[in-house]
Specification:
Blueprint (H helix, E strand, L loop, with lengths): L9 E6 L3 H10 L7 E4 L9 H4 L17 E2 L10 E4 L13 H6 L27 H10 L6 E3 L4 E2 L4 E2 L8 H6 L2 E4 L3 E12 L2 E10 L4 E12 L2 H11 L4 H7 L7 E9 L12 H4 L3 H7 L10 E5 L10 H7 L8 E6 L9 E2 L1 H5 L7 E8 L7 E3 L10 E3 L6 H18 L8 E7 L10 H11 E3 L29 E3 L14 H16 L1
Parallel strand pairs: 1-2, 1-11, 2-8, 4-15, 11-21
Antiparallel strand pairs: 3-4, 5-13, 6-7, 9-10, 10-11, 12-16, 12-19, 12-20, 13-14, 14-16, 17-18
Helix pairs in contact: 1-14, 12-13
Cofactor: FAD
Keywords: FAD, Flavoprotein
Family: Belongs to the GMC oxidoreductase family.
Length: 518
């Protein structure tokens, strides 16, 4: 059956089959009389070993069928460097919102014991692999007030496979008949209905294009956008909903910016760099295929939330007060990565970042700014949905971002020169090299941030939820001025969470489904 001959009367069209889209579609169709169409521009990746195998994540980079390959606009605050980001397959750390803070805010209805179980559809666990560097990390930072921890991952440790949103689309779900999924199908624009409702625009459906045809599909109730923080606003602008003036008035794109330092490990240690050695790689598949164990079964991600620090591990209250109203507020998350990372002037892709340039084994420590004062934008370049939008995160455009972030590499460099880390690495082997920047000087630390700045792949806030005077969507996630278009992904965040956004995106989709089904 062709898409143009599709005859079901649809209630909802969901655009985007990622974390938010597949979650909300799977909830809406649970009412047997509700008919849902889920449209995804990419292919069906189920069964692809690069997706299912936790440690093969990097093998997806550069594959145009799964890699969206978004490039930023040139960033004037780092000498015109272009940075690459991709949104089709983010890192798989899973960080729950802060329970104590939720209780303090009176959100007890969302904190019940029945909401804190361990038997939901998404598997979350820790990999069996845990090495000496992870132990050293916890020993070095575990005494901090905010502390070090090992991130839970979206993976099924018993099966050794990645856990992701496809768990919502089981064979039983597919057999129900009231949820249809179209992959390799691009939504080109949103189609308006002829009438209005309470003075608001009414949307009738979407125009789609697949490899074999182009047609229009209609929905009786709503069109739900879950295409991500870059493509949801693109689709709205291409469709002339809100138009560019609305988004320019409320530019609020936020992304976590990172500065990284890499260090060569001691001669008696190895790091993840060995997995780039063809002589080693050839032996990795066998233990995974036989037992779902071994290095391919997972990668422990160690992290720590840190307040404002400098080389000595603290910043005086008066200095903090001059930068932040709350001197106890965390300013960065540290991430431990078991291999070297490389950025370079000009165009930097994930392949460039992960390419092994230096001989030997390295580890990297990344400082991720928790909340950016710099706000970016996302706007269309033309009415052609195939042309990628102008993605400008405007990293470090607010001077306070550089001041906050630069102090963390200073502390990291001090950290690795003390035990227990000092026994595991060669501190003088730092990338960038010691003779280029002595991080005891703040000006040199600023230079390192500008040279080694990258992204943590969490764009958010491009269609943020605020009243009509200052936002794009309302408290029901509906686009202002439109009666039946909702946005359900990270683009609605007024303020980006301090860590990984994946768990919060799942929560947005679940909450949106509850709103719709009331």
């Amino acid at each position: 059956m062709t898409k143009s001959s599709f005859s079901q009367q649809l209630d909802y069209i969901v655009v985007g089959a990622g974390v938010a889209g597949l979650t909300i579609a799977s909830r809406l169709f649970q009412e047997p009389s509700t008919i849902v169409l889920l449209i995804e521009a990419g292919p069906d990746g189920r069964g692809d070993p690069r997706i299912e195998t936790p440690r093969l994540l990097a093998a997806l980079y550069g594959d145009p069928t799964l890699d969206c390959d978004f490039m930023t606009e040139p960033q004037p605050h780092d000498g015109g460097v272009k940075r690459w980001r991709r949104i089709c397959c983010q890192f798989y750390t899973y960080q729950m919102p802060n329970a104590a803070r939720a209780e303090m805010l009176g959100l007890n209805g969302y904190m019940g014991k029945d909401n804190q179980g361990c038997d939901g559809p998404l598997p979350v666990s820790f990999p069996a692999v845990y090495g000496p560097f992870n132990r050293a990390w916890n020993e070095a930072l575990g005494g901090r007030e905010l502390g070090a921890f090992t991130c839970p991952l979206s993976m099924d440790a018993t099966k050794g496979i990645r856990g992701y949103v496809v768990v919502y689309y089981t064979p039983e779900v597919a057999a129900r008949g009231n949820l249809t999924v179209w992959t390799e199908t691009q939504v080109e624009r949103i189609i308006f209905a002829d009438d209005k409702l309470d003075g608001k625009i009414v949307v009738g459906g979407v125009q789609i294009r697949s490899p074999s045809e182009s047609t229009i599909v209609t929905a009786r109730r709503e069109v739900i956008l879950a295409a991500g923080s870059l493509q949801t606003p693109q689709l709205l602008e291409v469709s002339w909903i809100g138009n560019a003036q609305l988004f320019q008035k409320h530019d609020n794109l936020q992304d976590h910016v990172i500065a990284s330092l890499s260090y060569k490990v001691a001669d008696d240690q190895v790091s993840g760099d060995v997995m780039r050695d063809p002589q080693v790689v050839q032996y990795l598949p066998q233990p995974y295929q036989e037992t779902k164990g071994g290095p391919l079964s997972g990668m422990p991600i160690s992290a720590a939330y840190m307040p404002l620090v400098d080389r000595d591990g603290s910043v005086g209250r008066e200095s903090q007060r001059q930068m932040l109203l709350n001197p106890q507020q965390l300013t960065a998350e540290y991430l431990f990565f078991p291999a070297q990372l490389r950025t370079k002037p000009g165009r930097t892709t994930m392949h460039d970042l992960l390419e092994k340039k230096a001989v030997g084994n390295y580890i990297s420590i990344l400082a991720m700014l928790s909340h950016s004062f710099s706000l970016g934008s996302i706007h269309i370049k033309s009415s052609n949905i195939q042309e990628k939008p102008a993605f400008n995160p405007d990293y470090l455009s607010h001077p306070l971002d550089l001041e906050l972030l630069a102090r963390h590499p200073q502390f990291i460099d001090r950290l690795v020169h003390t035990q227990p880390f000092q026994s595991f690495i060669q501190p003088e082997s730092r990338i960038p090299a010691v003779d280029k920047a002595d991080l005891a000087e703040l000006d040199d630390a600023r230079h390192v941030v500008q040279e080694r700045r990258f992204t943590c792949f969490y764009p958010a806030g491009s269609c943020f939820m605020m009243p009509v005077e200052s936002g794009v969507v309302d408290s029901q996630l509906k686009v202002h001025g439109v009666s039946n278009v909702r946005t359900v992904d990270a683009c609605i965040f007024p303020l980006e969470p301090s860590g990984n956004i994946q768990a919060t995106v799942y929560a947005v989709a679940e909450r949106a489904a509850d709103m719709i089904r009331v």
